[in-house]
Structure formats: structure tokens, C-alpha cells
Design goal:
Radius of gyration: 20 Å
Number of domains: 2
Oligomer: single chain
CATH topology of the largest domain: TIM Barrel
CATH architecture of the largest domain: Alpha-Beta Barrel
Order of helices and strands: EEEHHHEEHEHEHEHEHEHHEHEEH
Structural class: alpha/beta
Shape: globular
CATH superfamily of the largest domain: Enolase-like C-terminal domain
Length: 351
């Protein structure tokens, strides 16, 4: 018989994580833990990591579903396609937990050249918002660390300062040497967005994620049709769960890229559906974490490794936490590697 329990943990960033929606000073995640009577020492672990301000679900939703799942464990597979669809972080936690249990609790969820330590995943460096001087320092740190793709959060300190910062970096590092992406998290509006897009294009920026708030589909469609710089949908994907709705969004908005966060869209199956639809319409994509701990990041990274990606993915967030779970994942020099010789330290979860 399958048994399960869940625990809540608070992750502490090493520094304030600035976004256009406000700073992140702590992060709450939930772990679903399962085991069988015949092997009580083997635990499957899945992480539910909703993102306040982005997710459509709330902490209460997560806790209610986790309580239900632990009270009854015989219908998890069925629930992946019923009520858990509307609570995507929990749905993903169930996917992870079940697969990890099948893998003997090893955390090797998708065996590949990546998990053997032979083929790392290309990733972008990430520059959080701060004052202008701090952001410039962080960009240089990423470049000096070997990242050839850097994503910069914009929309909080004023676009004039942000553009000056981008231009100063471009003078030192042309587009042939450094790919610059920006993530606006919906910081601009219908009036300001066109000028922002033009100025970013003039600075040879690769792309912008979510220039206007989610849900402004007609505005976003107009921007995507006329933009001088590729636009990537991010928050607009969250809360859309059926295949028909996903297809309608991509068909009508016609973005150049989509950004897929498995914790926010509903896990591996949901992420794969977005990828299949995007590729059928010649829309590019990349996968990013949503500030999960090592458990969730590992689940996302191992899945991503099976997709044979060449473009930099957004999976370099593991270092932001002072109390993250020690794992074989290592982000350095523009790549995320898995070092199988390193051990997982799960004492903070399993006791």
C-alpha cells in the first residue's frame, strides 16, 4: 500500500530577488513524500512550488490538495487529469513523486547523458533587479563567470536607466559575443511598449519576455505582429490548461517564443503539450525554473535534457538560496551539469 505525507519549507535567498512585481525575500515550497509498505525506506519526493504573483493557485489550494492526496493514495494517476489540472504545482509534485518512487528514490527521473554527467544543459545567467550600479556589477559577474547568454530583469528602476545599462554592456560586448535577453514580467503598457521594443531592438537585445501584463491578448497579438524584437510569452501561459485553449492562444497571438515553467503550467505532460503545439506553428521555446529548490529544479532539468536543447535554458537558479538542498546539480560557465558522484542530502526533508 502507498503511504504519503507532506511538509512545508521556507527557502531563504542569499540576497533580495528584485522583480517588477516586488522583491522576493523568502520562498515557500511544499514536498510530497510517498513510500510503500514493502519498501518503507525508499521515498519518492515531489515539490509543489507555486509562485505568488504569477500562479493562479494559492497556498491554501496547495495544502488542501496535499491533505487529500495523503489521505487517499489509490487515485493519484486519475487525478492528474481531473482536479489536479487546476492546481498545477501540486500536479507536478505528484508527477515527480510517482516517478521518483519508481526510480527507487534515486532522483534519477530521466536517465540520460545529462544524469551520467556527460552532457550539460546550456543555461543563461540571470540578473535580478537592483539599483543601476548593482545590476551592472551583476551583469559583469555573469559574463566573467563564462555565461554567453544573460537575462536581465527590467521594469522596476526605470526604463531609461535600464536601457543605458544595456547600451553600456553592448559597447563592451557585441551581440556576436553576448546574447542579451530581458524579462519585463508585464511591466509596460500598450502606450509605452512599442517604444520599449524599438529601443531594445536598437541595442541588439535578443528577446523580451512578457512586455505587457498577462491577459491582454489583443494587445500582445498586435505587438507580436509588429515588433522589431522577438517577444516571448511567459505569464500568458499560466492558467491555460486545455489543449484547445493553448492552441488558440498561440494561433491568435503568434508569439516568436514561449517560456515554459513546468511548476506553473502543470508539470512534464503539460510542458510537452506546449512544446508540441509551439513547434507545429514554428514558435520557439525554452524552459525555465520558477525558483524551485533542488528537488523541483532537478525534475525540470532532467526532463529538459531529454529534449536535446541547444538554446540557453533558464535553469541556473539553484544558487540563489542559502538553505537549498545539497544535490548533484552545478551551474557554472553557462551550463547546468549533473555530477552523479555527488550525493543528495535529504535530511531536511526526510529527517
Amino acid at each position: 500500500m502507498l503511504h504519503a505525507r507532506w511538509i512545508e519549507r521556507t527557502l531563504q535567498p542569499r540576497f533580495e530577488l528584485g522583480t517588477s512585481k516586488g522583491p522576493i525575500t523568502a520562498r515557500t515550497v511544499w514536498y510530497l513524500i510517498a513510500w510503500n509498505d514493502d519498501a518503507p525506506g525508499i521515498h519518492g519526493i515531489g515539490e509543489a512550488a507555486l509562485f505568488p504573483g504569477h500562479s493562479k493557485e494559492f497556498p491554501t489550494d496547495v495544502k488542501v490538495k496535499l491533505i487529500e492526496l495523503c489521505a487517499r493514495t489509490d487515485n493519484w494517476i486519475e487525478r492528474l487529469t481531473t482536479d489536479l489540472v487546476d492546481v498545477p504545482s501540486v500536479r507536478f509534485a505528484v508527477e515527480q513523486c510517482m516517478r521518483d518512487l519508481e526510480a527507487g528514490g534515486t532522483k534519477t527521473l530521466f536517465p540520460s547523458e545529462f544524469t551520467l554527467g556527460r552532457k550539460p544543459i546550456p543555461i543563461n545567467g540571470l540578473v535580478w533587479m537592483g539599483d543601476k550600479a548593482t545590476m551592472k556589477q551583476r551583469i559583469h559577474e555573469q559574463i566573467d563567470s563564462g555565461y554567453t547568454t544573460v537575462k536581465m530583469k527590467i521594469g522596476a528602476i526605470g526604463f531609461t536607466d535600464e536601457l543605458e545599462l544595456i547600451q553600456s554592456i553592448r559597447l563592451e560586448h557585441p551581440a556576436s559575443e553576448l546574447c542579451l535577453r530581458v524579462d519585463a514580467n508585464g511591466a509596460f503598457n500598450v502606450q509605452s511598449a512599442p517604444d520599449v521594443l524599438k529601443r531594445l531592438a536598437d541595442a541588439d537585445v535578443h528577446s523580451i519576455e512578457q512586455p505587457v501584463p498577462a491577459g491582454l491578448y489583443e494587445v500582445m497579438a498586435d505587438l507580436c505582429a509588429t515588433t522589431p524584437i522577438p517577444i516571448a510569452l511567459d505569464e500568458d501561459l499560466i492558467g491555460i490548461h486545455t489543449r484547445d485553449a493553448k492552441q488558440d492562444l498561440l494561433k491568435n497571438v503568434k508569439p516568436q517564443y514561449i517560456v515554459i515553467k513546468p511548476s506553473l503550467v502543470g508539470g512534464w505532460a503539460a510542458a510537452q503539450e506546449w512544446i508540441d503545439l509551439a513547434q507545429a506553428m514554428d514558435i520557439g521555446w525554452w524552459i525555465t525554473s520558477a525558483l524551485e529548490s533542488s528537488i523541483g529544479l532537478n525534475a525540470i532539468a532532467q526532463f529538459t535534457a531529454t529534449l536535446d536543447v541547444n538554446m540557453a535554458q533558464g535553469l541556473g537558479t539553484g544558487k540563489v538560496y542559502a538553505n537549498n538542498i545539497p544535490s548533484p546539480l552545478v551551474a557554472e560557465s553557462g551550463y547546468l551539469s549533473y555530477r552523479p558522484e555527488e550525493s543528495w542530502d535529504l535530511t531536511s526533508i526526510l529527517g
